[in-house]
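Dear colleague,

As promised, here are the two records you asked about, laid out in our usual form so they can be pasted straight into your sheet.

NAME FIELD: protein one
SEQUENCE, THEN STRUCTURE:
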Amino acid sequence: MASPEKPELWRTEVGDAVAVLHIPGALKRARTFDIDVSLLVRVPEDKSEAWHALTLEVDGKRQWHRRIASSCPGQTDGLDYHCRVVLEAGPSLRIRAVAGTRGAVVQRLQIEAREDQPS
């Protein structure tokens, strides 16, 4: 009996406003990925009108967007998003996260894709 393949894990982390993750295609099988995107920003002491936003694009199409007022003056705040994506056999997948801010400063923008394998 063949042992199951190890689930794929793809990850990128930047200290900038744009993160891109490429997952190559697999010729012989479809795969399902749990995608987690996380934005962490530093909030100024005087947070008046500070905000941060996160946009997620999958293969060039907007999947999700949210903009919120930044909380926690002098500390950090953030946004997180989770989704599942089915990648059919053959094509690759491009995931792009874009952070927007006013007043707050991007500390970390991370994308992680974990393959979900059936038991």
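NAME FIELD: protein two
SEQUENCE, THEN STRUCTURE:
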Amino acid sequence: MSSYVNINLIRFEYRGSWFAEAPGQIKEKMPVMWENEYDRKTHILETTWLSKGLDGDKKLGKYQKFQDFFKDRINTEIPIVMAMAKDLNKHPAEVKQYQGVYKVLVLSYKPEIRIRFLSQI
């Protein structure tokens, strides 16, 4: 019997949010990260889209809020949700399926978010 978080109970915090929640399993909100950015050899995930939004003409507030979430947690272990995108060419991405919940260490937040995977929750 697995003690991992039941991924069938994960849902976005609210429509349009970049955070998910797992009611009754994990108390804090969890950022949703994309599995295509995860390097299985180094166990590091580095975003490739954040600085494009911060430097581009998109709504700066949403990008800045996401970056600030990681800035406030630098060198801290946090839970994140790993998701697989339906279509990597469509932005913003839609979740095809959740891969799991992981404990990660926040390494950096600027210019892109970098996290190291520690274990599955």
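A couple of things worth noting about protein two: The chain is about 15% helix and 40% strand. The mean pLDDT is 89.

Best,
R.
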